Input
Amino acid sequence: MAGVTDTPAPASPSPAPTTLGELRASGATPRPVKAEIRANLLARLAAGEPSLPGMVGFEDTVLPEVERALIAGHDLVLLGERGQGKTRLIRTLVGLLDEWTPVLVGSELNEHPLAPISVWAHRQIAEHGDATPVGWLHRSDRFGEKLATPDTSVGDLIGDVDPIKVAEGRTLGDPETVHYGLVPRTNRGIFSVNELPDLAERIQVALLNVLEERDIQIRGYRVRLPLDLLLVASANPEDYTNRGRIITPLKDRFGAEVRTHYPIELANEIRLLQQEAHTSWVGVDGAVRAGDAALATPVIPGHLVEIVARFTRLVRESSHVDQRSGVSARFAIAGLETVAASAVRRAAVAGETRPVARVVDLPAIVPASRGKVEFADAGADPDDDRELEILDHLLRQATAQTFRARCAGLDLTGLQEHFTGGETVESGELVPAPALLGQLGTIPKLAELLGRLGVPEGDHSAEQAAAAVEFALEGLYLTRRLAKDTDGGRTVYGA
Output
């Protein structure tokens, strides 16, 4: 799909020249797309700027390999399990193109006015000379991508003879009878083939000339078009033996193969969550997002973001999960958004002033994320609750790890002593913050607890306090200092 990138709208207006004569007088010169990318990449590196902004956790591993490939002028293939950011990385490459580039108005191939390649373009320039109209193409429109599927045809990628043009009287060998496919229409840009092994092998053959000779063949006759583009593909490693493979001659024509990975450090997992969750309506680390109403701005405290990140990592490492499939970053992102939605639902039903996520919202992740994990015993009964039990156990483990990391050395005996006389505290997914806090009365060292959890001093609201206290109660339960009884959406803590 052309033009679908993460590149922002134009930051500056297009340049002034509107005719071939004006463009030539301005001193403009054609530059191959790989040279363009190389120059802009080196400029960013020299200025100390991120080469590919927004790629979390790849700074010391994947990005140096990608940078070397781009500087060398190589087409590349990215290998990695699902949800490792391969498509995101490919779309980010568009930011290395010049913001604006001149094109012949009406050209299907984005031809540079000073370097035409088609019969149509040469005829236009011969007829109009210096008055040939020139337009300007933004870099966001210089990107094309195709999700490889078994039904993808050579016509989709390369092109086919247009029977209507033949019927108009042109001969079959006339290059102007061709209806160009996605690849030539992305000339002077970046073209991506996602999930390349899913492309039928006979269709992969059609890309051989594009990668090496930089020309195309259609319906048995050769169309000499010196295409100028960067070709990038993505693939899952297991696809080489399961769903398909990249044919050897095609692999040989890619200049570089780069392996991606999931975030190695917990801090990067958390950064990725904060960046990729739908933060237009979800606030993290206590930051409230602007909105029309409080219900449109749920907040997920930082300790809950950490729990979701740890939970994701534990699921990836579990022996019960199919390691070849992996656990996508979308697993964690969807989980965080589910937690936020649970908080919004409570605020709407129970009348909370401000939706702030709490520990009681975490169990909603388990049933919602079950379909995003492939378990090693895939042949088991789909109605078996064992998978839910595994996920629930790992979620409790992630909560306990976060409690130990955040509250190590914190004196919670005052909170624990509340239960020595047989008192209980009832919580639940629809119990509002004031009702939860009202059962506890004065809470010793609450300010210190809030500080440990990173809640700003000016944001000690009832909702934030309830979120912190409930996390402390759950931590005391998981470290066997309190008891807990759960029945549906109702949770009771006691001695």
Remarks:
- The chain has a mean pLDDT of 85.
- Residues 329-350 form the longest helix (22 residues).
- The CA atoms of residues 104 and 134 lie 5 Å apart.
- The longest strand covers residues 229-235.
